[in-house]
Amino acid sequence: MNFMTEKHDPSSSPLDLDNIRRTLTRLEDTIIFLLIERAQFAHNPRMYSKDGFADVLHRDGFSGSLLEWMLKETETMHAKMRRYESPDEYPFTPRDQLPAAILAPLNYPPLLVNPAAINVNRDIQRFYLDSIVPAITRTVTDRLGKEDDDGNYGSGCTRDIECLQAISRRIHCGMFVSESKFLSAPSSFIPHILTPNPSALEALITKPAVEAALLVRLEKKARWYGAELGPDGEPLVGDGARREKVSPEEVVRLYREYVIPLTKVVEVEYLLHRLDGLSQAEIDELARRG
């Protein structure tokens, strides 16, 4: 799903803020549904340990976890299909470990300045594995008495990769938001870029009312999308409360504590480098635009 090729309005720019917001709103749906899919399996911490599958992976020289191995294998295939040539896609595997695309490159317009220098996937993977997965997954006890392990390693890793990629795309789209806001009022940003003043830049891009509305919308979506429905299509109730596939509170927490703050990190970091390589005359011309 690439908003640069989506047809909202043929005459509108990919940097139109309304277009970007529509993409981010659809990504909310994608992320919620993927979290629901991951929540059907147990935590399975063995998948995330470097020693969890050492007997299988280490004999081929790979020293990471099962998830890291599957990420690299998956992203190797995606790289061959030119996924990471799209300006809104960022791999978790270092780019120098991925192959070149086997398809001819697409002619993307140069919308961003120095985007390849920003990649927060390591932070995304850390908070997802440490905080999100344990909170949304089921607690089970296997036949050996080991908790939080149901043996669905392939399925669990597959769902993890889908969640990670969707969250990564959501957060890195912050660069398009920054570019759109910068172009709407360059003179407001330029002094704080030249100083530099990250706090002032964050204040310029932060819209508390928009963030509050986002969290309310997420809670409602998660409650409806995650409801267990009976044969009649009505939500099932247990112990006086609706039965849910994933906690709406955890979805909101994901955005409030991780997605929104990390998106701001991406946006500010992008702005700090927005003028890199420009001459003083070019910067002055931007400042005169408003």
From TrEMBL:
Catalytic activity: chorismate = prephenate
Isomerase in keyword set: yes
Cellular localisation: Cytoplasm
EC number from the UniProt entry: 5.4.99.5
Source species, domain of life: Eukaryota
Assembly and oligomerization: Homodimer.
Protein name, as recorded: Chorismate mutase
